[in-house]
Amino acid sequence: MSITRWGQCQDVLPLGAMTQVTTEDVYKVLERVTDPELGGNIVELGMVTDVVVDRDGRVEVGIALTIAECPMRGTIEGDTERRVRSLPGVTDVAVVTTAMTKKQRSHVMETARKRARDGAEPTQVAPTTRVIAVSSGKGGVGKSSVSTNLALALDDLGFSVGLLDADIWGFSIPRMLGATEKLVADDDTKLIQPAVVQGVKMVSTGLIIESEETALMWRGLMLSKALEQFLGQVEWGDLDYLIIDMPPGTGDIQMALGRLLPQAEMVVVTTPQKAAQKVAVRVADMARRSYMPIVGVIENMAGFQCDHGKTYDLFGSGGGRILANEISVPLLGSIPLDASVVSGGDEGAPVVRSETETPAAAAFRSLAHALIDVVPPAEDESCTGRIAKLVAQLEDGLESAASG
């Protein structure tokens, strides 16, 4: 039996052979089979491991999936079989799937992310801007307080910082920063000008509507469109960091962000209690399914220290560390429960600026330094080093997902 293998020279078939199908024919048709989650064809992504064609028209295709229990396995196998069977001369098709090695997964993740970046719609956010999505699995964990104080702490370190309130329904950033001016567009460029509040460029639906009490009756599609407008029609300028205060959960805004800003990376906010930590795993899972790197965990409301120095773990302890270990990322910071964080947010005087000597303010400053360590400004890091870290993080995430 004469066979043709992928990547080898084609054997010369004797006159009268039953089929003229070649590996090149199979290769071409496999370029039309896409991985729905990765968004690329299986050849381009390096998922095709082997193609064997025999003289009787039987074709065997080897495909490596990111994990053995890939939810798209049936779809990919079915599409592959139908496409190959449509070739003239093919009498039978066998699709053999295997799980990728670490090296293969690294290559696929890098290729998929590059495709997303190259194919993304243009925005006003510079490619060199570090985009940090501050996310949580549930509400009430203090995500907006973290976003606001983190942005100001980065600004205090001399970086150019933007703050986008992507919690379209539940906006709170304007109150926390004491912002009252409305957003306006430049007469010449027609681009929306972000409000500059306490040194930070800020955009929120709270600066568009009539008053803070106005309810936004918008459906999911409108939320995604609002995010598109904030990224594509706001003149952000040159920023070192863009902090995005995300709504809780894993809905339309989260999915739209991965599509609009492939360069975005995520930090996950949780409280120490086990319930919050378990819910936070969901947003981490969503990030990985969107191929958005998670750079760390922030534990908020970690403990209350009374005047005589004793600390009370009102919301439990250790949840941030457990979550960080579970999703294989560092714990970037642990913010103590502090009444000044709440009062500062209500009064438009964030604690990192108004109560600089408090433990919470110190914790936010430490958090800013920790974030800079893992996501340094673009000009301070080589491309090779950054890619290596992203690939390693994605590898660890996929290993965790496979074992879970």
Structure in words:
- The chain is of the alpha/beta class and 404 residues long.
- The protein folds into two domains: 3-116, GMP Synthetase, Chain A, domain 3 (2-Layer Sandwich); 125-384, Rossmann fold, CATH 3.40.50.
- The protein has 13 helices and 18 strands.
- The strands form five sheets. The protein has an eight-stranded mixed beta sheet with strand order 11-12-8-13-7-14-15-18, sandwiched between helices. A four-stranded mixed beta sheet has the order 1-4-5-6, covered by helices on one side. Strands 2-3 form a two-stranded antiparallel sheet.
- Strand 9 and strand 10 form a beta hairpin.
- Helix 3 (102-119) crosses helix 13 and helix 6 packs parallel to helix 7 (252-260).
- It is elongated.
- It starts with a strand and ends with a helix.
